[in-house]
Specification:
The protein has a single domain, classed as Glutaredoxin (3-Layer(aba) Sandwich), CATH 3.40.30. The chain contains 10 helices and 4 strands, in the order E-H-E-H-H-H-H-H-H-H-E-E-H-H. It has helices spanning 18-31, 42-48, 57-74, 91-102, 105-117, 126-135, 140-147, 150-166, 187-194, 199-204; strands at 5-10, 34-39, 173-176, 179-182.
Length: 206
């Protein structure tokens, strides 16, 4: 019998996404749940909902401090808040679309977030992106060319549309059997839902 599955929707450039990127595999393995990693353009959906975090400095101060606290809680490395905002062309996300199509998306995602958070490199910037891709044994110039292709842009837009149809508005978000859980702090609930062990799900069956 196949393991239950959750979808992990996330955006390169989302501060909170760093936390599940670094811990979701271990948490899912413990729970016996498979994870589908799905990068999408949360920036597009936020614009549609008139959400602009860069215009809320007080909230951003809280977010970076909260991420630091949660990283310490989970034993995840944290140096300082990363360069933000970053990746204006969403190139890091587009490269991820190529990477997942070829089967190395998880390694690319983790390497990218480490470069951003731990090495202080801007996401999507060519030098940093070249370093990440080269470290994974990829031809950076070829991958970036394909990332900007019509095919990749269409695939990325399709994932964003899938998120839109699910009612997703932020990153990270987990979806289990159509149930949406927003935020890193909802990961364990999403895993429980996927396994049929969440109290709200089990009570509904009575």
């Amino acid at each position: 019998m196949a393991n239950p599955t959750i979808d992990f929707f996330y955006f390169f450039g989302s501060g909170y996404a760093y936390l599940p990127v670094m811990r979701i595999d271990e948490a899912a393995e413990r729970a016996g749940v498979e994870v589908r990693w799905r990068p999408f353009s949360v920036r597009t959906l936020m614009r549609e909902n008139n959400i602009a975090l860069r215009d809320q400095p007080g909230k951003m101060r809280y977010i970076w401090r909260d991420i630091e606290r949660r990283a310490k809680w989970h034993g995840i490395p944290f140096v300082k808040p990363p360069i933000w905002p970053t990746d204006p062309d969403e190139l890091a996300n587009l490269v991820a679309t190529v990477a997942f199509a070829e089967g190395w998306g998880r390694d690319y995602t983790k390497a990218s977030f480490k470069s951003w958070y731990l090495d202080g490199q801007p996401l999507g910037e060519r030098t940093a992106l070249n370093q990440v891709l080269t470290s994974l044994g990829q031809d950076a110039a070829e991958i970036i060319l394909r990332a900007n292709s019509a095919e990749t842009l269409a695939a990325y837009a399709a994932e964003t549309e899938a998120a839109r149809q699910l009612g997703i508005f932020g990153s990270p978000t987990f979806v289990a059997d159509g149930e949406v859980f927003w935020g890193d702090d909802r990961l364990e609930e999403a895993l429980a839902w996927a396994k049929g062990e969440h109290p709200a799900r089990t009570e509904a069956r009575k």
